[in-house]
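Lab manual, section 2.4: Encoding a predicted structure.

Procedure: take the sequence of the chain (484 residues), apply the prediction step described in section 2.3, and record the output as structure tokens. A sample record is shown.
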Amino acid sequence: MNIGESLWPDPVGAARRVRQMQCKLHQWAVGDPGRRFDDVFNLVYHRDFLTVAWERVAGNKGARTAGVDRVSPASIAEGAEVVEFLEQVREQLKSRTFAPLPVRERLIPKPGSSKLRRLGIPTAMDRVVQASLVLVLEPVFEADFKPVSYGFRPRRRAQDAIAEIHALGSRNYHWVFEADIAACFDELKHSAVMGRVRLRVADKRVLALIKAFLTAGVMSADGKVRNSNTGTPQGGIVSPLLANIALSVLDEHFCAKWDAHQTSWRREAHRKRGGATYRIVRYADDFVIMVAGTKTHADGLWDEVAEVIAPLGLRLSVEKTRVCHLDEGFDFLGFHIQRRHKKGTNKKSVYTYPSKKALLSVMAKVRALTKKAQHHDLADLLGRLNSLLRGWCAYFRHGVSKATFGYLDAFAWHRVTQWLLKRHPRITWRDLYRRFLTGRPGNRPAAEGIIMFDTTTVPITRYRWRASNIPTPWASTAGTLVPA
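Recorded output:
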């Protein structure tokens, strides 16, 4: 798998060649499910892969954040400085002298909670190496991943997971095992992760590199470094892939139970005999198991799931894991999913709404943005507010969100006008309308050509359920699996 080397390439040409190599890796992995790749380390330090990795790291929104070495990717100037930096990375990898530094620990608040989440920030050099490692490994492991997982995978998104739950709920999967793994990224066993990686990778140099990242340690805010005997830090580029590799045991377990019945009529016969069928929908470490059966079948999943994840060093959170009926409803990935009577009929349908928690979260962000001293002028405020509202509405526009969008728009309009009143203490409502609102559709606040985004104009559309027909970026077709 040797690739000829040359001077540092341009990003466009490098991306094209990397994609070609990824297609080969993926095709080889699909063609031989038992193949263990034993000569891929040279790809990790190849100039093409490092160039593409740098483009991804430098273009990431976290590029201004530095690791323990206090060097952020954004601080590395373009041109010769980038070439010198990448050449240094390459030489260290090639000579086997590269050693990752501890990640810088940062505690961030969990959305809708008073608890804090640990975020690990790698150094700029470590980020580039991790990004290159993902470019090499992802096409290989995507050949094995099941279509029931959607988190941190190419061409897959949260809306696919919600659409699958909607489809299953409309097909007699009415009991839900809503699971939560306690501190998944902190307690994941390194030996379990490495064992799963070894199923596909035999190159000891790559395995040593992954192990080095897992055991690099964590530097807390007070400068003390502690060993990382378990877990993979959230914030690392390679962490989501490693977590998916480990947690795919859940997907394989429940897909094997599904495949054991072979045909839809056998599954139906099994259910008529008092059995149940199960479908898992997973987004990283968040997952639900839809059950076509009884509450007893759903309750039995407590021990079954615990047994599957125990070898990974993981456990279910007793406080957050529960069994519920679809008529009761549950929250998943920001949506509230519930079966209700269709208005004017006796027929029940599955509906997906923005959850109360998600709405309260965006309202808190709007409230924080509209603090009096946060912005220089109205144009600055509207620029940031519009970005927030557009992104939130784009995520939830595939649910039953019209009423929620209207409520959010009224709240945001009120907050902006109150901000204006505070910034201009002596202004009257008449003057406020004349200076900032008059003449705009719906009396939208506006300044310097920027008009406050109207969330009520976002079209509500049904998301097309793609089932298992989601091809990887390196394959044109994928298998199909439709629930009976």
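Check your result against the sample. Confidence is low (pLDDT under 50) at residues 1-6, 477-484.
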